[in-house]
Automatic annotation (TrEMBL):
It holds the Pfam family FMO-like. InterPro entries: FAD-binding_Monooxygenases (IPR050775), FAD/NAD-bd_sf (IPR036188), Flavin_mOase-like (IPR020946). Transmembrane segments: none annotated. Keywords: FAD, Flavoprotein, NADP, Oxidoreductase. This is Predicted flavoprotein CzcO associated with the cation diffusion facilitator CzcD. The keyword 4Fe-4S does not apply. GO terms for molecular function: flavin adenine dinucleotide binding; N,N-dimethylaniline monooxygenase activity; NADP binding. The keyword Oxidoreductase applies.
Length: 548
């Protein structure tokens, strides 16, 4: 018989995406009574939901996979340098099957509330189906970009054709041939969709509010021989990822921007433009992130590339961002994106000039005219990083809500613990190093650190972990201060909490969502905390009260 103070589970992981899968693997290996609650009908998180054409990594596939199992690394063959959604979902399923993790997972189990019960030192979770479950530790693996946001246009429900956010692109094939399709939004998602469907639809009209700086992904297949070589070098590859700021193979060019001649800068940029993935962003001179003039010179280089690729000079100019420089917000990687606008069936509508006024039964109305569509695709982004937390009624000590605590932006210790919310762990939370790096690299770090903390607690008979107010304030100040020299602090980007569709996230209310100091510094700091006996975290062994 279980003690009445003993929770249903020692640990509950919320979310069965990349982070949740690895977290449950670690807990299962330790024999911990744990489960995963996942809102979706199946595992995969981002890669379960995002089925839109063109959805793929822009991290090199072999740096995105888990690194924890040599056997897994040896078995899995990544077929493309930047693998697409179907393959990515297959991979996550393969991992779950291989390590027999499905048995720990509950699907269609949307957590609506998580309340800390101080008297019993446990978390009470309410699931949408009416169940209540309890646990000692709740581990938030909610995803950074899991809550989609839609514009608030009048008449959105009146449209008689099909419309959906990219996250909810239907599972069954969508007939595109001969259809008139609208795509609203030109972020990383819109740019992937547009490049992929331009030659498959009847007509495509892109509604662009702000253009984005974008450069070629340069994807290609990975042969058996290349994969064998990658397998032989995995250790070296992950070691490189661990020492680079972004957790990628790409290392910044450490020469000073102005120490080399303009010819040399151009030579480097010509090379980078043809290299795969984020090389153009992350192998560049470091000054492009901090120095306005250096950034402007490089941005002009990319603008010229766009002009060379887009035939109509008026369209080309519309595709060149004016309000921000290259790389100060997330750089979407593209495949034939700019060439799409050379096709006679693709049209660009600049809605900064002629805004959308409403959705009609047959399409969209701008201040200029009506457009008829069969399908409207909303590639309008996410309530990023804190959105998924906001969607759960999370209450800590004395019933304080996390929503209130974070109303002006998140505050955490290391992005992993929150003062006032004991035993709530975030392997990849706001202000952690994971959000700004190659995600799985950051996730493995975060999951390992959280699991080490739990093992430490179990080993020493501790039952409650809470970050101190001082540690949290100091971490939050540190994360904020790190933006002081970065051009990205001014960008209208989800990195800084901007989302025009979410009240309170308008431009100007900058929030410091992600740790910007790079993976090596982040990892050094969290290891230091661990080595100093979890300095900044109060660990207590007090048994929960038997009363109440
Ligand atoms: P993003 O990068 O937030 O892009 C959203 C796009 O949608 C962007 O172009 C927005 O224009 C546009 N948008 C958003 N709301 C509206 C309204 N109301 N009207 C017109 N246009 C709008 O999201 P993504 O899904 O592309 O990418 C998210 C991440 O997913 C990405 O960084 C990767 O890490 C994976 P704006 O720029 O705000 O003017």
């Amino acid at each position: 018989m279980r003690d009445r103070n003993e929770p249903d589970y020692e640990a509950i992981v919320i979310g069965a995406g990349v982070a949740g899968i690895y977290q449950i693997k670690r807990l299962a290996d330790l024999g911990v009574r744990a489960t995963v609650l996942e809102a979706a009908p199946d595992l995969g998180g981002t890669w379960y939901w995002n089925r839109y054409p063109g959805a793929r990594f822009d991290s090199e596939s072999y740096t995105y996979g888990y690194s924890f199992s040599k056997e897994l690394l040896n078995e899995w063959h990544w077929k493309e340098r930047f693998s697409g959604q179907p393959e990515n979902l297959r991979y996550l399923n393969y991992v779950a099957e291989k390590f027999d993790l499905r048995k720990y997972m509950q699907f269609d189990a949307k957590v609506e509330a998580a309340h800390y019960d101080e008297a019993h030192n446990l978390w009470r979770l309410k699931i949408a189906d009416g169940r209540e479950v309890t646990c000692r530790f709740v581990i938030m693996a909610l995803g950074l970009l899991s809550i989609p946001t839609l514009p608030r246009f009048e008449g959105m429900d009146s449209f008689k054709g099909r419309s959906f956010h990219t996250l909810y692109w239907p599972r069954e094939p969508v007939e595109l041939a001969s259809k008139k399709v609208a795509v609203i939004g030109t972020g990383a998602t819109g740019i992937q969709v547009i490049g992929e469907i331009a030659d498959k639809v009847g007509e495509l009209t892109v509604f662009q509010r702000r253009p984005n700086w974008s450069a070629p992904l340069n994807n290609r297949p990975i042969s058996q021989a290349e994969m064998a070589d990658i397998r032989a070098r995995y250790e070296e590859i992950f070691a490189t990822c661990a020492r680079t700021p972004g957790g990628f193979e790409h290392e910044p060019d450490r020469r000073g921007f102005y120490e080399v001649s303009r010819e040399e800068r151009l030579k480097l940029w010509d090379q980078l433009y043809d290299q795969p993935g984020f090389a153009i962003w992350l192998r560049n001179f470091r000054e492009i992130f901090t120095n306005e003039d250096a950034n402007a010179e490089f941005s002009e280089y990319i603008a010229d590339r766009i002009r060379r690729r887009v035939k109509d000079p008026v369209v080309a100019e519309k595709l060149i961002p004016r309000d921000h420089g290259f790389g100060v917000q997330r750089v979407p990687m593209e495949t034939h994106y700019f060439e799409a606008y050379n096709r006679p069936n693709v049209h660009l509508v600049d809605i900064s000039e002629t805004p959308i006024v409403r959705v009609t039964e047959t399409g969209l109305r701008t201040t200029e005219r009506d457009y008829g569509f069969d399908i409207i695709v909303y590639a309008t982004g996410f309530d990023a990083i804190t959105g998924a937390f906001d969607h759960i009624d999370i209450r800590g000590v004395d019933g304080e809500t996390l929503h209130d605590k974070w109303k002006d932006g998140p505050s955490t210790f290391l992005g992993m613990l929150i003062h006032g919310f004991p035993n709530l762990l975030m392997p990849a939370g706001p202000q952690s190093g994971s959000a700004s790096t190659n995600y799985p690299r950051g996730i493995e770090t975060g999951v390992n650190w959280c699991t080490d903390l739990l093992e430490h607690m179990w080993g020493h008979g501790y039952m409650r972990a809470e970050a101190t107010r001082e540690a949290e304030e100091s971490w939050t100040a540190h994360v904020t201060q790190m933006y002081a020299t970065m051009l990205m602090r001014k960008a209208k980007s989800w990195f800084t909490g901007y989302n025009s569709n979410v009240p309170g996230h308008e431009y100007g209310r900058i929030r410091y969502f992600v740790y910007n100091g790079g993976a090596p510094k982040y990892v050094a700091r969290i290891i230091e905390v661990e080595q100093k006996g979890y300095e900044g975290i109060v660990l207590t062994s007090a048994a929960p009260s038997l009363s109440g």
